[in-house]
Automatic annotation (TrEMBL):
Gene3D superfamilies: UbiA prenyltransferase. This is UbiA prenyltransferase family protein. Its main location: membrane. It is found in: Membrane. Its cofactor is Mg(2+). Keywords: Membrane, Transferase, Transmembrane, Transmembrane helix. InterPro entries: Prenyltransferase, UbiA_prenyltransferase, UbiA_sf. It holds the Pfam family UbiA. It is a multi-pass membrane protein. It comes from Streptomyces durbertensis. The chain crosses the membrane at residues 34-54, 93-111, 117-134, 141-159, 211-231, 237-259, 271-292. Belongs to the UbiA prenyltransferase family.
Length: 293
């Protein structure tokens, strides 16, 4: 079950809407914050499990053809990797697991704000679309970026009914760019050999590793700039400690992965693992800024 929902990745992902929540309300009611955290975790567990369910056929071919090589530690591999494809879980169980988590996320979202329900449903639909485009187009990475940004925005609307255009726009840009440059394309670079044999169309498969690295680095730089600009624009929330912390975290989890990719595209999985922790680091910097302001 943990592997089906990519439990580590899903848990780390909760940091994304929590940053938005604290931007919208720097002093949130503890009970509401706890409820939003549970709802966010349920939503991410459901969405990641949906990805595994949708890709079960392709993943089964990976294992059947022994295409899945051991490329080193992978945040996504905590727990059983692709348990459906390996026959460790049944499709019926997976559907029940996803359904239960989705109901929990939807109920909590409705209690917080109906907009959260709409954003969750939209993110889930985008996840399904992303999986459907696996063998169709390499530009599906744009869908992935939008999906992550949409889901993360639920944190904002769980605590505010008003929109502050500039910080929210910077937040969306940050999430969009981080997902593409930090997770999506580096993950595709790590899987390029097997994707070629399976007919999965990704940027490195269609355009080559060199182009993929350039695209990933460009988005990583955009994410770094957007996160820094967000901390500066939301100065009353981040404060000096939060701003400096955000820049330091960005250097370690965005700029360093970019350098790793430029030096060696084969280090894509290391870059992916580092970038995965970026929103958690920004959340920590934000909380530190709030506590010390």
């Amino acid at each position: 079950m943990y592997g089906l929902s990519r439990g580590t990745q899903a848990t780390l992902s909760v940091a994304q809407p929590l940053v938005a929540a604290l931007l919208a309300d720097p002093s949130p009611p503890p009970g509401r914050l706890a409820l939003a955290t549970v709802g966010g975790l349920a939503g991410f567990l459901a969405v990641f499990a949906t990805n595994d369910l949708m890709d079960a056929g392709v993943d089964k071919r990976r294992f059947g053809a022994r295409l899945r090589a051991d490329t080193g530690p992978d945040v996504d591999s905590a727990g059983a990797r692709h348990p459906l494809a390996q026959g460790l879980l049944t499709r019926r169980f997976a559907l029940g697991w996803i359904g239960g988590l989705s109901v929990l996320a939807l109920v909590i979202g409705a209690l917080l704000d109906p907009v959260c329900v709409l954003l969750f449903l939209l993110a889930a639909l985008l996840q399904v679309l992303y999986c459907r485009l696996a063998t169709v187009t390499p530009y599906k990475f744009l869908v992935s970026g939008v999906m992550v940004a949409v889901g993360a925005c639920a944190g904002w609307f769980a605590f505010s009914t008003t929109v502050d255009p500039l910080p929210l726009a910077l937040f969306v840009l940050w999430m969009f760019a981080w997902e593409i440059g930090g997770r999506n394309i580096p993950n595709d670079l790590a899987d390029v050999t097997e994707d070629v044999r399976l007919g999965v169309r990704t940027v490195p498969v269609v355009y080559g590793s060199r182009v993929a690295v350039r695209v990933a680095v460009a988005f990583l730089l955009v994410a770094f700039a957007a996160s820094g600009a967000l901390a500066a624009v939301a100065w009353p929330v981040f404060g000096a400690v939060g701003l400096v912390g955000t820049v330091v975290v960005g250097a370690l989890t965005l700029l360093r992965p970019a350098l790793l990719l430029v030096r060696d595209p084969g280090a894509a999985l290391r870059a992916f693992n580092l970038a995965t922790f970026h929103p958690v680091g920004v959340l920590a910097a934000l909380v530190a800024g709030l506590l010390l302001r």
